[in-house]
Amino acid sequence: MHLGKFILIRATQIVVSFFIILTLLFVLFRVAPGDPASMVIDPQMTPEDVEVTRALFGLDKPLYQQYLICLKNFVKGEFGSSFYYGKPVIEIIGEKLPNTILLFTTSIILSALAGISWGKVIAWRRGSLLDSSVTVIGLVSHTLFLPWIALLMVWVFAYWMNLFPLSGMITPELWLNPETGITMKVLDVLHHMVLPLSVLFTIHFGGFMLIMRSSMMETLKEDYIVTARAKGLTERQIRERHAAKNAALPVVTTLGLSLAFSINGGAITETIFSWPGIGRELVFAVSNNDYPLAQIAFLLIAALVLVANLVVDVLYAYLDPRIKY
Question: Topology of domain 85-319, per CATH?
């Protein structure tokens, strides 16, 4: 099968999967307990006013009609307005998404680079003290309970030592000051990023490192590694040009999916650090039955994960010539 045909088939599967996810989300949010209109309905409203309010949200129609309207609007690129904020959900996503991308994509890329580098080094020196020590660190890192380590770092470095801000992404007083330059604003954001970035790096580093170590050790048993040594290549050339490239295949899968899932913002992390991103908004939308906002947030995650799977499959063929489609 040619790569172009493979991509076409997978793209069709993505469209079908996305449609199924959209349908499931619609049904699950509608059958969940609670009424989204209750957020704006005043107890003193007359029954007529209540019905007008529900009609404004489109909640007065039968479920199947709401579904058809949802599909029609989605195809037209109209994603509705947030029940709580009263403005288009696309605007809310546009405001919060860059914050999530900044924090989570940075943390995943840094942890992947560090994990891959250490993984291939300790696999090359398997059985040594360095291998044992770093492997233990990776296991501890990979099994840490995120809320615990996050709250611990907040208590130690933000509350007790007062080195970093307790929460948020910026210092409002600094940003509202017209004399504050762009450099100070960037430094302020980086200062707020240190703690959540450190927590996410700690959690993700171990996974990338352990996967790379395990894959590298399997790769080193292959015949072409023996052939490379017989050709007189240096140990560094064998490790970097031959072993590491093929050993990176499982890491590419993990990295691609991690980047896609990072868009949801890690609800726990963003909540603990009050980081104004998609994850925090997602928790708020689900808690308050804000259907349009919650649906688009989930659909964004689903779309990115589906596309990431396709990208990873294509990258496999590039990284390993033995893989054919």
Answer: MetI-like fold (1.10.3720)
